[in-house]
Amino acid sequence: MKYIKTYEDTDEFPQIGDYILMKMTRVSDFNLYVSTHIGKIVDRRKNHPHMYVVKYDEVIPHWNTNLIDVFLNEILYFSKNKEELELKLQINKFNI
Question: Considering the entire predicted model, what is its pTM?
Fold first, then answer.
């Protein structure tokens, strides 16, 4: 039986080092890339409590960078384990 111990961390917000899947609501041509690739949170913006800096492995097409600012409400899924999100991508890809 699995249970959560009272002293374990049960974050409800993403943390630096977590992997994410997101949906970009601000730039439509950007959404196709970020909704099919996994990013990693590398920092938080100090001036905005719910904004994260996300790094992708590849340079994002037409943007010439692999770092973007992401709002909390644009993050669909986050996990410390990249394999969990890779599985989620496969499920979405085949509409399982």
Answer: 0.81
- In sequence order, what are the residues at sequence separation of 6 or more whose Cβ sits closer than 8 angstroms to the Cβ of residue 68? 30, 34, 39, 53, 54, 56, 60
Q: Where are the domains of the chain?
A: 19-93
User: Which of 33, 64, 70 minimizes the C-alpha distance to 50?
Assistant: 70
Residue 78 neighbours by CB distance under 10 Å: 20
* Predicted confidence (pLDDT) per residue in 28-67, tens digit: 677 788 889 999 999 999 898 899 999 999 998 888 889 9
Tell which residue, 48, 86, 83, 90, has the closest CA to residue 69. 48
